[in-house]
Amino acid sequence: MAGTDKISRFDVIFEAEGSNTSKFRNDVKVHLRGPHPVSVDLPTDEGPLHGGDGTAPYPLAYFTSGLTACVMTQLRAFARRLDIAIGDIVVNTRCHWQAQQTGNAPYESAPIGFTMDIDIGGEASEADKRRLVLAAQKGCFVEQSLKPGLVQHRLKVGGSWVAV
Amino acid sequence: MAGTDKISRFDVIFEAEGSNTSKFRNDVKVHLRGPHPVSVDLPTDEGPLHGGDGTAPYPLAYFTSGLTACVMTQLRAFARRLDIAIGDIVVNTRCHWQAQQTGNAPYESAPIGFTMDIDIGGEASEADKRRLVLAAQKGCFVEQSLKPGLVQHRLKVGGSWVAV
């Protein structure tokens, strides 16, 4: 980058309208705001064994996809910006929480740890792939909203997984 | 609750398998692990104006629904546990991020603030509704994974919005 490149900022705003009338079904409409608005229905429900009717995905399923896909999108976008030649991307994420309750009182929940195993195809060097993963972390809107240190990343190098 | 009520813990684990072959479409399969497993396809894409094909929701749309619905689910579940009589629940969430870039280098993103406006119907007192919102915050797996203080909640009381 030339030293004279301009610093610029942009805002990203998503809004949700959720309604719940009785059981665990939540009707949720999500809107991307700004110059190119998009709206989508993303309802949720709990499964029958958690008291719901299983009419839609769990809220945490959306969360887990959102986190995974946000990092993947930045890997793809920033590979172009960094001119790093990559092939297919495969990411396996594990989100682990624990809840504690006394009797039947409301429980308190806490994240134990999230891991993302990232396999980037193509002939790019290990150094370039590491550089790309670090850039994707910093650019990922979801990850930057999480408690620092919560997500641990590993990169596939040869046949092994190495921490990034 | 009786003083002899037992403390118990349980784990919640969601895993995602994501793959991306070229553009911004991410095929993501999410699995709830544990005794009652469920799997669901939750692909993502960027809109045409962000370089994608608009074949699926944005990753941040899933995130915003997941956050909103997680709190709503706990409001419904914990109203029962706390024996607070409530009616319909309406939640409006706003997630605001900002990104900064130099020239065309990868940008760095940061959350500016998330707000949740919560309207709980029914005859429950303001004190009970506040107690319920506080319990839902502590029980919400998504919110407990976010940077502390990032989410601000307001409760509708009469015709006004008051901070919780």
Summarize it:
Chain A has 164 residues and is an alpha+beta fold. Chain A contains two helices and seven strands; from the N terminus they run E-E-E-H-E-E-H-E-E.
Helix and strand layout, with pairings?
The structure is a homodimer of 164-residue chains.
Chain A: E1 7-20, E2 27-32, E3 38-41, H1 59-81, E4 89-102, E5 108-120, H2 126-139, E6 151-157, E7 160-163
Parallel strand pairs in A: 5-6
Antiparallel strand pairs in A: 1-2, 2-3, 4-5, 6-7
Helix pairs in contact in A: 1-2
Question: Any overview of this molecule?
Answer:
The structure is a homodimer of 164-residue chains. Chain A is α+β, with helices and mostly antiparallel strands and 164 residues long. Chain A contains 2 helices and 7 strands. Chain A has helices at 59-81, 126-139, and strands at 7-20, 27-32, 38-41, 89-102, 108-120, 151-157, 160-163. The first copy, chain A, has a 4-stranded mixed beta sheet with strand order 4-5-6-7, covered by helices on one side. In chain A, strands 1-2-3 form a 3-stranded antiparallel beta sheet, with no helix packed on it. In chain A, a hairpin with a 5-residue loop joins strand 2 (27-32) and strand 3. The longest helix of chain A has 23 residues, at 59-81. The radius of gyration of chain A is 19 Å and the shape is globular. Chain A starts with 6 loop residues before the first strand and ends with a strand. In chain A, 40% of the residues are buried. At the A-B interface, strand 1, strand 2, helix 1, strand 4 and strand 5 of A face strand 1, strand 2, helix 1, strand 4 and strand 5 of B. Strand 4 of chain A pairs antiparallel with strand 1 (7-20) of chain B.
